TrEMBL record, chains A, B:
Name of the protein described by the UniProt record: Guanylate kinase
Binding site for ATP: G11, P12, S13, G14, V15, G16, K17, G18
Domain of life: Bacteria
Entry-linked HAMAP family: Guanylate_kinase
Catalytic activity from the UniProt record: GMP + ATP = GDP + ADP
Domain (Guanylate kinase-like) ranges: 4-182
Family of the protein in this entry: Belongs to the guanylate kinase family.
Species this protein is from: Paenibacillus mendelii
Compartment(s): Cytoplasm
Length: 205, 205
């Protein structure tokens, strides 16, 4: 059986990563969502192993020490990270895993898991991104300008990714990502790994 | 406008290149079929520029001398080849071009047009390929054994291709090839070519 693929979906804040990822999982139910570990307290209704792997601070620091995380970050006093073990088990069982993550986190994953498929989600234009950020309401123009400047800096990191997918329309973006997954499964390198077994089918002929 | 892609579809004799290519063009009418040049006499109903570009032997040899062919071969006394100019014009106008060609011809194209997308079509197993070759009738077992041995040699050339697509079922094979075309259009390198123009959209924001 062929090993699964780790699909890393990233892009600037406001581009619609979460919406695209949710839609993709609905359309492609066999796609496994990478479950994060966190030290924050579970909220009402959150289930261990589905929403998060809930860890104590000591457990999390032990995972860091054992290099058991593909990436991690501290945010408002809590750790969040991607357990390597969960991803590896799913890939070994032939399942594709999708990891939705912000731009810096994706680059950390790339350091530890270069064989992943790194997809950068883009807005159709920077105008549209600004509208989406502004459309969330509440923020004043300084905050919006700051976010836009961060987004432009992040977009320069696209050079480290494999694919650029424009999120002009959710259905179209999902279709492009599904095509990328199918195409990556057809890459010659993946076929070559099982080529000797394939050629042996002539013996039976 | 983005430049089109040259999709080179190849694979051993009997694998079903022609059937898959015909089906693909029906499903994706905007895909342009690369028209070959030949010195053979037009058959009833064949149209210049649609089925072939019909050339005199002198004209064809002049094209060879001018390096105007992506590949060519002589077969039963006639020349056959792929005019570069037709392909380039289509790509420049943003259209994707598909070239269906045998394995050796595809490798010649790669020498002159490395930026093409090279897809190798495979049978589900060598058993199935043997059945398909045998199923054509008429051939004796020496001919079949020879064809199988050529097919296995050709399959070793898959290492020079980008993708391996198994033709287990025509619809599935077409879906994989369509996915490859969509994914290749999303490659980061293609996006980067227009990245400065994209970033300039912030000026208008």
């Amino acid at each position: 059986m062929n090993r699964g693929l780790l699909i890393v979906l990233s892009g600037p804040s406001g581009v619609g990563k979460g919406t695209v990822c949710t839609q993709l999982r609905q359309k492609q139910s066999e796609l496994i969502y990478s479950v994060s570990a966190t030290t924050r307290t579970p909220r009402q209704g959150e289930i261990e192993g589905i929403n998060y792997f809930f860890k104590s601070r000591e457990q999390f620091q032990d995972m860091i020490a054992r290099d058991a995380l593909l990436e991690y970050a501290e945010y408002v006093g809590n750790y969040y990270g991607t357990p390597r073990d969960f991803v590896e088990r799913m890939l070994d069982s032939g399942k594709d895993v999708i990891l939705e993550i912000e731009v810096q986190g994706a680059l950390k994953v790339k350091e530890k898991f270069a064989e992943g498929v790194f997809i950068f989600l883009l807005p159709p234009s920077l105008d549209v991104l600004k509208q989406r950020i502004t459309g969330r309401g509440t923020e004043n123009s300084d905050v919006i300008d700051h976010r836009m400047s961060v987004a432009v800096d992040e977009m320069n990191l696209i050079r480290y990714y494999d694919y650029a997918v424009v999120n002009d329309e959710i259905e179209a973006a999902c279709h492009r990502i599904q095509s990328i997954i199918t195409a990556e499964h057809c890459r010659k390198e993946r076929f070559m790994a099982g080529f000797d077994a394939f050629k042996a089918t002539t013996e039976k002929a």
